[in-house]
Amino acid sequence: MFGGRHTSVTAIRRIDDSIDFFEVPKKKRPVLQKLKKIPFIRGIVAIVEASGNGTKHLNFSSDRYDVHPDDDHTIETAEQTSKITMILGVAAIGILSFLFSTLIFTAVPAAIAEFFRPIFPGHVAQNLIEGIIKLIFLLAYIYLISMTPLIKRVFQYHGAEHKVINTFENGKELTVENVQAHSRLHYRCGSSYILLTVIVGVFLYLAVPSDPLWERLLYRILLIPVVLGASYEVLQLTNKVRETPFLKWLGYPGLWLQLLTTKEPKNDQVEVAIASFNELKKRDDECENPSAEGRIV
């Protein structure tokens, strides 16, 4: 999936080897546009918007996986008859995912760090241990799911997207050979953002009590929006200074994480990524905005 100034486009390889496209035009919401200009708030808005948009694209691709294009009418019928069920299902999954991630990546690291308090009683030491444990959990989780065939395939397409963007930003023609020659890592990747939430959290949690445990967990949950907003600003900063000597290293941890969240794509996967990007450019150009290509992410 690629997102431009006016729309986002996904391309998928169908079972008959054809390439199908899915587009979600960006709606103009004045309130959201104003919120996106406010530092720290704009990050939260961007995450919510990206999550909703990404779900639509994922549903499109998953619904058509192993379905012949001639049978697409059965997908559309199923979507119409089960729309309420789908909405309730997405809401339930969202709530359960939030609770699960809060438990695994917030409560458990804090509880384990508390276990080491007799050895490391200091406030700073406790936050560092919690951050290290959280980082280990994150890396282990990503590594384990990347071993499954389905997620490995997703990560290959993720790598193909980055290669296409890097090729485009370097002014090269989008051919399979040129794209494969470029890196699968990119500064603006969302997986870098995930890592930054862990690092930024370590520093922000220094400002709140870490004892007793219940108060520690309460502050962790209350500070989730703050951590998300601050991490987004740091991500934007690392992208702005990526060409600046002595500062470009700020984005290196995120790039290292992408060694897990991206895989080297096959040529046919690169073809799909190129098709998606070209389709996005075409549809953005149709909106008559000549500066659109500079905003592609």
Quick one: overall form? globular
What portion of the residues fall into strands of 2 or more residues? 5-15%
What is the count of DSSP helices, taking H or I runs of 4+ residues? 12
Q: What is the first-to-last residue Cα distance?
A: 10 Å
Task: Tell me the strand order in the biggest sheet.
Answer: 1-2-3
Average pLDDT level? 86
Helix and strand succession?
A: EEEHHHHHHHHHHHH
Secondary structure tally: strands: 3
Q: What are the segments in which pLDDT stays under 50 over at least 5 consecutive residues?
A: 292-297
* Range of helix content: 55-70%
- Based on helices, strands and strand pairing, what is the structural class? mainly alpha
Radius of gyration from the alpha-carbon trace, in angstroms: 21 Å
What do these coordinates show?
65% of the residues lie in helices and 5% in strands. It is mainly α and 297 residues long. The protein has a three-stranded antiparallel sheet with strand order 1-2-3. A hairpin with a 5-residue loop joins strand 2 (7-13) and strand 3.
Mind sketching the topology for me?
Layout (H helix, E strand, L loop, with lengths): L1 E2 L3 E7 L5 E7 L4 H6 L5 H23 L8 H10 L1 H33 L7 H24 L2 H21 L6 H5 L9 H15 L8 H10 L1 H17 L11 H10 L5 H20 L11
Antiparallel strand pairs: 1-2, 2-3
Quick gist of this model?
This protein is mostly helical and 297 residues long. The protein is 65% helix and 5% strand.
List keywords for this structure.
about 300 residues, mainly alpha, three-stranded antiparallel β-sheet, 12 helices, disordered C terminus
